[in-house]
């Protein structure tokens, strides 16, 4: 059995490449910069628009892999209530996410002063903000305040669903079997219905492949990989989806690399490792940066393909710089802990003041 690991440079590399592809997809999709660049490089921009989004499958598989590692390291059931774990996951996702939503609102307001484009979200409403805060914007049909935020809601749903399944099993064998059964059902049925793409069940096939990859690396690898591949290939024979084929390749790569030891030793490429570490921050802040880059380009009255390409590269560079700062001050464990403590202090002070006000009211 492989020993528990802390550093996983291969996962960092996968996350870095996937994050950059998602950014490239959004850069090829939103604003006048994308429209102008497409005129000069139609094939490249069309490829990024069509296939860049599939990098999300890499995140889904990795998320399932890491969730299995944390929730059910050896394929066991959750003994205690999953609610504290789900709450902890919500805080982990929502603190940087809500900070980034604030940046997106400000960036949209600034960009709206300089350009008129469909990429700019409409002014935020209280209902819209609450839907985002509760990670329900997709389910409620609320317009997104930033590109890609649907994924954060799906990630939370997936984690919650897996935790509940592992808790519902209550038996060592039954718990992972429930996860794999729901994943198989997703691959064969739910993932084939695009109307379900606001719900975890649509994506649980890829997430479950990631979880199965972790358990395969803990057990008899050839047998488990044969089962994983057999189920996924059968689903692809019924309805071929390139995104599921990609998820299968990533899952098998993770399982084999952990078993062989490559997962914790390769590749030692510092830029990829760094981008992988800040990939969530990069995912969150790049759209506000892109909006501002489009607004500045429009404000300057530029229209050449060269200026558009330069603007896109400038937006990428600015996104990496902003993500680095965002990770340090908002997303990192130390920063998140400070924010949670500050919020707790504010709630405590509000409760004290409310108690004092109620006491004064009773005396009056």
From TrEMBL:
Range of residues in the leader sequence: none
Ranges annotated as spanning the membrane: 58-78, 90-110, 130-152, 164-187, 199-216, 221-238, 244-262, 274-296, 308-330
Protein name: GTP cyclohydrolase
GO MF term list: acyltransferase activity, transferring groups other than amino-acyl groups; hydrolase activity
Entry keywords, A to Z: Hydrolase, Membrane, Transmembrane, Transmembrane helix
Stretches assigned to the Acyltransferase domain: 11-322
Keyword Transmembrane in annotation: yes
Protein species of origin: Azonexus hydrophilus
InterPro entries, A to Z: Acyl_transf_3_dom (IPR002656), O2_lipid_transport_reg (IPR052728)
């Amino acid at each position: 059995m492989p020993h528990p690991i802390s550093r996983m440079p291969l996962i960092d590399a996968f996350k870095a490449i996937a994050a950059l592809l998602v950014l490239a997809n959004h850069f090829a999709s939103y604003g006048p910069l994308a429209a102008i660049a497409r005129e000069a490089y139609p094939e490249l921009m069309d490829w990024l628009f069509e296939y860049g989004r599939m990098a999300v499958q890499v995140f889904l598989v990795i998320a399932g892999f890491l969730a299995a590692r944390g929730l059910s390291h050896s394929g066991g059931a959750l003994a205690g209530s999953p609610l504290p774990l789900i709450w902890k996951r919500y805080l982990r996702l929502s603190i940087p996410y809500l900070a980034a939503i604030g940046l997106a609102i400000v960036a949209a307001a600034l960009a709206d002063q300089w350009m008129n484009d469909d990429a700019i979200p409409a002014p935020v409403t209280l209902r819209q903000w609450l839907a985002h805060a509760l990670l329900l914007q997709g389910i409620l049909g609320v317009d997104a305040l930033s590109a890609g935020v649907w994924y954060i809601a799906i990630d939370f749903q997936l984690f919650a669903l897996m935790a509940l399944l592992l808790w519902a099993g209550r038996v060592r064998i039954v718990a992972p079997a429930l996860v794999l059964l729901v994943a198989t059902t997703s691959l064969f049925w739910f993932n084939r219905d695009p109307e379900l793409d606001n719900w975890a069940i649509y994506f649980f096939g890829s997430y479950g492949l990631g979880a199965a990859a972790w358990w395969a690396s803990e057990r008899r690898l050839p047998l488990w990989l044969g089962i994983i591949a057999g189920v996924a290939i059968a689903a692809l024979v019924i309805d071929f989806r390139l995104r599921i084929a990609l998820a299968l390749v990533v899952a098998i790569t993770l399982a084999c690399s952990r078993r062989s030891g490559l997962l914790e030793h390769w590749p030692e490429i510092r830029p990829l490792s760094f981008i992988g570490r800040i990939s969530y921050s990069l995912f969150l802040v790049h759209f506000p940066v892109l909006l501002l880059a489009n607004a500045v380009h429009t404000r300057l009255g530029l229209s050449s393909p060269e200026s558009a390409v330069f603007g896109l590269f400038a937006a990428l560079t600015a996104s990496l710089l902003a993500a680095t700062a965002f990770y340090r001050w908002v997303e990192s464990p130390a920063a998140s802990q400070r924010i949670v403590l500050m919020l707790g202090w504010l709630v405590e002070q509000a409760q004290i003041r409310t108690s004092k006000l109620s006491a004064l009211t009773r005396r009056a």
